Amino acid sequence: MPDFLLSQILVTFTLAIECYAMQLKDKNRLLALLSLSCLFNGAHYLLLGQQTAGFIFLFSSIRFLISIKWKRQWMAAAALCVSLIITYYTYNGLLSILGFMATVLITTGSFSKNDKFLRLMMVFGGLLWLIHNVLLGTPVGVLVELVFVGSSAIGYYRYYIAGRMKNINF
């Protein structure tokens, strides 16, 4: 099976997992599922020859699991340092920079104790990964990020905007 086709199959698992995960209210379950999705996404990028994105996602799988238990800012800083080291050693231009910037946003959100902030960082980080995937030319990867950003925005709306709208008396 060609690497490109296998990469698209693997990232399809990411798509299914993330669609479900971003609709969960329980932040720990959301982070656990994102950890699993990162394994598939990391393999997808490695098959496409994108080492920066691949290794960042494999490390992100571990980072999401750590952030379930510990929300210490120094751990977020350590995770960002590891991501920076990965980016430095695998650097291949604009795609590496976009991936790192997206990781900064998502890492900052995942170590936050605030679910609302987490979801906002997921939207903005997802938009950067969307640009990354468009430039890379991975069709299912683009779909993953479109759905991820859309699902994140819908989850944010459901939990933080729609509830407020019900309490407004006209």
Q: Please report which band the strand proportion falls in: under 5%, 5-15%, 15-25%, 25-35%, 35-45% or over 45%.
A: under 5%
How many discrete domains? 1
Mean pLDDT: 90
Largest sheet: none
Determine the structural class based on helices, strands and strand pairing.
Answer: mainly alpha
The ordered string of helix (H) and strand (E) elements is HHHHHHH
In the predicted model, the low-confidence regions spanning at least 5 consecutive residues are none
Range of helix content = over 70%
Keywords: Membrane, Transmembrane, Transmembrane helix
Protein name: Membrane protein
Organism: Thalassotalea marina
InterPro entries: Uncharacterised_HI1736/YgjV
Descriptive key words:
single chain, 170 residues, mainly alpha, 85% helix, globular
Could you walk me through the main structural features you see in this protein, from its secondary elements to its overall organization?
The chain is mainly alpha-helical. Helix content is 85%, strand content 0%. The protein has seven helices and no strands. Helix 1 (3-21) packs antiparallel against helix 2, helix 2 (27-47) runs antiparallel to helix 3 and helix 4 packs antiparallel against helix 5. The mean pLDDT is 90.
In short:
The protein is mainly alpha-helical and 170 residues long. Helices cover 85% and strands 0% of the residues.
